[in-house]
Records
---
Amino acid sequence: MKNNICAVVVTYNRIKLLKECIDSLRKQTKNLDGIIVVNNNSNDGTKEWLALQNDISALHQENLGGAGGFFNGINSAYNKGYNWIWCMDDDCLPETDALEKLFCTEYKTNVLLNSVVVDKTNPKNLTFGLNDAVNKKFYKYFDEIKNINLINTANLFNGTLIHKNVIENVGLPNPKFFIYGDDYEYFLRIKKSNTAIFTVTASVVKHPPQRHIYFGKWKFFYRINHFNLLGVKYFPRNISAIWYFYEEFTFRRLLKTYFYDLIGILIIQKNISFFIQYIYSISKAPAFIKELKTGNNSLG
């Protein structure tokens, strides 16, 4: 039972992607000991399909976003006694040996190990990019990193393997973030605790591509998924809170994030309503920060 492993998948109204994700988990060369799917009140047949699966423990809840999904999913796996918890969204597609490759590292306890996340349509590209703070590089292509493991960088909840000791040390993802930024806050909290964090590039997870554009010499990942009603409602508020609690996310980075997001909304989407909602979300940040400070949320 030393390395008993449970996968936690959070889903919302994407049954086709969920089925593909579960199929990839079932085909892993290193067997899982359990699979937990957190269903955020999907109405596309997800609940009925899960009821037919004998190897899945389903948690059905109101839509609490990705943050609430991983909060409850990881908590459930931890309480069931699993030593390792492998976390991913329903649009992740791990290669068949992805889990096995994570366990090929020398780090066995008190560690977070992440698969490298590549573009599902063009695996030469990294879906989100990876920031190498040690060497001060930003990697965009898989060939740049495929022979090395990256320290203190990871795309959380996309093939993220967490040892139970980490959870005991830093707590669970913060459900108050609801969506957008919860993964980054959890990453910074874990990093601040001096937990070992590695992206294991031999372990590959495929993920739908993200759009990106260039502004002069700056590469900007245009987070089109942020620029919807939920994105403009939660992301500016959440990223502002991250700046407040974590020195690593500087005020300059915060302003740059605001600037590029607002450019994307105005120039690419041409959506004045989203622009106004984004500004309004920033104005909600002080109250949200106060709520986080007074709550028991394990923030740094």
---
Amino acid sequence: MQSPGLALLEKKMTAPIRNVVLVHGAFADGSGWRKVYDDLIKRGYAVTIVQNPLTSLADDVAATTRALNRQDGPAILVGHSWGGTVITEAGSHPNVAGLVYVAALIPDAGQTTSEQYAGFAPTPDFVIDIADDGFGALNPEKFKIGFAADLSDDDAAFLRDAQVPINMSAFGATVTNAAWRTKPSWAVIATEDNAFDQAMLFHMAERAMAKITTVAGSHAVYVSQAKTVADTIDTAAHEAVHDRA
């Protein structure tokens, strides 16, 4: 006969995951998640959107950790672009049940973000202007083709004008923990992403043993293909339950 305590533990471990934490990347802020947020809310999820300061990897991980600390149960942690590096480091948090990488970087422990680009083709349409203070922003004239080629002019302009510059030294910070080595992972790869070489995206996702979804879209796939991104998060929330059981 099963004890009441064991039955309660099993019920807790197999209960649906209802929390999602969204982490934006460089040259962006949290507002770009609006369509994904709206979709997830309609599905009954509690969603937290992190606002990364983009001042260092440590600062962005701290911001994400604060959001994870506020969760009342297990959560799916989602990162876009540079946010993939952030969730890789922050994802060992006990509240994280699974990781979703959206057009994202997926470094390994002991690596920097910059090292992920080695050996892969350059992306000439993704142009970063670096100021004297070391912070970089996407070139406004190249923003749409580099970041948001499949968005309307108005939507691309909004993302362009909402972008937050990143301290470029963050890309040289060494990742000390690769959460994907201990947490189940999913990846959404946009086939028209002008920020990354496609081979690089597949290399990182396959190394992380992520379940990969490909979709036609730009680097702003979380805006242009919000339903596909939300579907992947929903799948992760259901499948991560079984991985935790």
